[in-house]
Amino acid sequence: MMLLRTDPFREFDRLTQQFFGSPGTKTRPAAMPMDAYRAGDDYVVEFDLPGVSAESIDLDVERNVLTVRAERETRFGDDVEVSVSERPRGVFSRQLFLGDTLDTDRIEADYHGGVLTLRIPVTERAKPRKITVGSRDETKQIDA
């Protein structure tokens, strides 16, 4: 497997937020929906971050753990009376464990239209390759 999706406490956090307060508070990271798929020689991960400024996005890779953090700030002024506030605000955070077959030194990131897209190349050693099998009678190739 190229990517291991790990948020062991995500469901617990969701239930806790429903019981104790709204999501998106400064003290508890809110969920960040994502898609992940392989496209050719890259693994692509897309995160929905609408309303987040690119400057607030922080990406960090340490020991094959990718951490994505972003913050959506409140835009209400001091003299505003809010009638409805349902959009999550505060810190958004997500961690992914990346497999050894991904090249974490060459991750590319792009943020456009509220979607953060990461392209993570598959390492050369993880790509399919042909291996030549020699025999005394003939030489033929097989897929590895």
UniProtKB/TrEMBL annotation:
Belongs to the small heat shock protein (HSP20) family. SUPFAM superfamilies: HSP20-like chaperones. This is HSP20 family protein. PROSITE patterns: SHSP (PS01031). Residues 25-136 form the SHSP domain. It comes from the Bacteria. InterPro entries: A-crystallin/Hsp20_dom, HSP20-like_chaperone, Small_HSP.
